[in-house]
């Protein structure tokens, strides 16, 4: 049998892919695991979005290959969405590229700009796909550490002291996943200055800006950002369309065209009815996001209660569709707490260590579960260990 390519030898199967198989096996055996791990929205898109999909899918002229650049209607909708909510003007003809999910875009960017001998800065903790995509491109990862003490923002002054001569791009993500940290006043400006001085391409992954966040921000709104930054965005979270695979890349035309050179050799465009439905989703008013966030806010309170029963501590101001929490000292790391809860209560919560070494003393709970499901999880945890008294109030 042929050996796998060298590019895969350091890249393991995605953690959730393995864990979901384990949970599925437990469910087959009648365990009925409550999964509070992965962030896959359980709510449907807006009814008008579903209607747009159905209406366009019934047309006879929409089933062919599509443009690699995406339908003009979708590009225009993305441009209008950025203008309304982020105060960013994008040329729909040249500065917008629809994607079959923003995760695809992470790989496209790395394959476009990185090669063997290059380095990319990635956050620790951070989304594991950044590391995988960098390594698959043949480049090397250079971690920058994030800590609770610094509000999960990088220390750019310390980072500047490192040898960054081989760094071509830097992955950033705010509101941050997994910690829910917001960028804070002035951070994006400092980040742009840092990248400009060192000729580093900033890649901002921005899918959580509308979730439990009253001030959506785009890195591209900062003066000078167009020259050094690309931004990924998605309807997976803000539109409840994770399975639809609808994402976007925004930035100046030169960057977009470079990424398109790679992308056009990898796919044949998104199904047109999905694109038209995505355009409808992007036209929704602020009442859609307000309703969505009312639901997530109620769920977050339940998640806080669950974490209290595990004696964890957390920041009540975090954004996004997860709750990130520090584990009690009685557990070695987040893996130990996650395994203990899965074994004793049949509730799965994500160990923070899958996001990097700085996440080891943490766990993460997804808000993609109903309040009733979260109540059942709380009850299961309470019954599995009556001694847990919930001595871990959240931090303000």
Automatic annotation (TrEMBL):
Transmembrane segments: none annotated. Residues 32-381 form the Aminotransferase class I/classII large domain. InterPro entries: Aminotransferase_I/II_large, LL-DAP_aminotransferase, PyrdxlP-dep_Trfase, PyrdxlP-dep_Trfase_major, PyrdxlP-dep_Trfase_small. Keywords: Aminotransferase, Transferase. GO terms for molecular function: pyridoxal phosphate binding; transaminase activity. It comes from the Bacteria. Its cofactor is pyridoxal 5'-phosphate. Pfam families: Aminotran_1_2. PANTHER family: AMINO ACID AMINOTRANSFERASE, L-GLUTAMINE--4-(METHYLSULFANYL)-2-OXOBUTANOATE AMINOTRANSFERASE. This is Aspartate/methionine/tyrosine aminotransferase.
